Amino acid sequence: MLLAGAVPALLPGPAIAPAFAEEGAPPALPPTVRIKPLMVPVINQQGRIEKYTQIEVSLEVGNATRLGDVQVSIPRLHDAILTIIYAGIQEGWIVRGNINNLPALRRKIDEACVGMFGKDVVTRILISPLARQSSFP
């Protein structure tokens, strides 16, 4: 009997249901621009390319009216991000294909985006490793 009495208390009653209705639907997600995957070499101790890894970068555009500007600039963004990734390899942020200092890499990409579009246009940066492949003999 105790269980039967406790079950209705766990279910949303009339006092809780209107609160859900007042909230409405969740807000729409901001638009995202995906930069095509970037090939990053993994260099061994002898300075030879051992394999490649792919990194994908997605940019969340907080100001939807500027989405077109960001999309048109994808080639420039690709080049700027690739330059930042190679600098990250030199700085030690990326070691053997692994991103060791993600905040520094993200900060540099954000600085490039601010330089291209101004502040608060790109609000979030997602960096995802995709795949690795061996180098050719």
Automatic annotation (TrEMBL):
<feature type="signal peptide">
    <location>
        <begin position="1"/>
        <end position="21"/>
    </location>
</feature>
<keyword id="KW-0732">Signal</keyword>
<protein>
    <recommendedName>
        <fullName>Flagellar protein FliL</fullName>
    </recommendedName>
</protein>
